[in-house]
Specification:
With about 220 residues, the chain is mainly alpha-helical. About 80% of the residues lie in helices and about 0% in strands.
Length: about 220
Amino acid sequence: PPAYFRRLREVAARADRGEYLPHLWNTLIKGFLKEWNDLNIVLALVLSANVAFLALPGTSEDSASALANLSRGAGIVSMFVTLGGLLTSLSLIWLHQPMLGTGSSDACKYFLGSAYSSKRMDPLQGGPSESKRGSFLRLVWMATYLGMPLVLLVWSVIAFVISALTWTFLFSAYETRVIVVVLCAIVLTTPLVTILVFWGPIASKDSLFGKMARSS
C-alpha cells in the first residue's frame, strides 16, 4: 500500500492543481493493470497448490491430531485468503480497465471524488486544510484497497508455509524435516534479500514513475 500511495499522491497533486496529465494517468492505470494481472497468475498457482495439498494423507482425515488439524486449518485459511485476493484483483481490473484512454477530467474525478464536482460548482467551498485532509484520507483508503491483492497473497503464502511445514513434521523422517526447513528458509529469505538490495533505488525519488511525473 505505501508504494501505491506514493504513486497516487504524485498524480493527485497534479490533478488537484488542474494540470494536463493524460500520459501520466494512462501510465498509472497501465501499471496497475499489469501488476494485478501478474498477481492473478501467482494467486491462481497458490490456490491450486492449496487444493492439492489439502488432499494429502493426514490433512483430509476426520480423526486427526492437533498438528494435523493445524496443518489443515492453515491450508484452508490460505485457500480462502488466496481466493479473496484473486477476486479482489479481478474486481480491481474490471473497475480500472475502462479507464484506459481517459483524460484529465476522469483522473480528477478518480482522485478527488465528490470534491471534484463541488469544486467545479463552488470553488470557494471548504477550506484548504479541510480539502487536503479529505484528499489525504481518500488516497490512504484507495492505496489500501489497491494493494489488497498483494497483501492477501503474502498472508496466503505464510499460511501455506505453516501448513506445509506442519505436515512435514508430522509425516516425514528427521532427515527430511531438516532438508525441508533449510530449503524453506532459503526460499523465504531470498525475496527479503532481493527487497533489501533493490530497496534504495526503488524507494528513491529517481524511480521511473517519479521521473515521468517530473518530466510530464
